[in-house]
Input
Amino acid sequence: MKNLFENKPKFDRELFIAKHEALEQRHRALVDRIKNNMTELEALLKQNNHKAKAAAKKLRKKISFDLRYGYVEGGHIKNEILGMLTVYNWGRSHKVKSIRHIRFDNGDSNLYLNIYQHKKRDMSKTAKVFVYIHGGGWIGGWPESREAFTTKVAEAGYFVASLYYGDAPQYAHPKMIENIYKALAWLKEHAIEYNIDMDSIFVGGESAGAHLSAMLGCISTNPEYNAQFELDESVRNQKVEGLVLNCGVYNMEKALETKFRNINIYIESFCGGRKLSDMPEEFRKQVSPINWVTAEFPPTFCISAENDKLAVLTFDFVDKLFDLGVYVDHYHADGTFAVHAFAVSQAFKISKIAMQNTREFLRGLVECMDGSENGSNEATV
Output
């Protein structure tokens, strides 16, 4: 049994308890909100006038969303906890040290980032930065559940900052992307302290995180898109050297057509509890990064999977980048384990191939930045 569990992460009991309690509190708050809304609905129905009927109709939609969201969130929580304890973090690097739960917004104690660096990093050398944006259907996910991927990138010598940017619908669009830029501002402010290069960064993520990463890529290269957001001015024009996009959502309306499990409630949550079809045309266009890519979009490495209903979105995105003349590489995994966001885990052969390709892609970009060809995967170690 030793070989089977040699890469299993050590069980972090304190972290597990803290996460579990936070999720329980969120669930209890949701249950209380549904009860209160039901009571309010009953009172409105008794009034039997036009104004009350209109308010009741609006409240019914809210209750319907909360009930569906609660059902999906319950399953999501179980998957996230099990994933953190098992397959999500299997294969994580033990050559990396971590600093967890660093608050990057003094006005919001929910938001934080984790830092991962090689234990033998030479602190006299400025490190390249890789920012990781986790997935989870915009309603969940944690940096701690993505440490197989993030520590493997850090092992190659990168300074990895993995962000917790908030869950929908509390942090509905555009709050998530705004929070991500707050995290970038924090990193820039502490660049000297950590000796990191914030002039140009790498960004990656899976699923919802790949969607947000692609948005960031568009913001960094399309002035018209950039102007649509309220961003921290110190990083509004943050340069992105390259993107690593794992099974992302790049076209929201087409994503709904794929019938990916729970995609309706995920996107509805991202929209603040409203259906995408009920949103203004400008909003619907804004949330799909495929609408905003230009020839200046950052070099990109895309990952997709055979058994993922969202894979067609990656193919569409890669095709558009190719047509625009953007440098793009694509790894499409086949086989039983080629499922949505498979590369998060490093427990499978195809995951390791995806990681190898990721590191080669990043290394190539670093060599272009530095004007060197030292052939090493180690960016700063």
User: Anything to note?
Assistant: The chain is about 45% helix and 15% strand. The first helix runs from residue 2 to 5. Confidence is low (pLDDT under 50) at residues 1-6, 373-377.
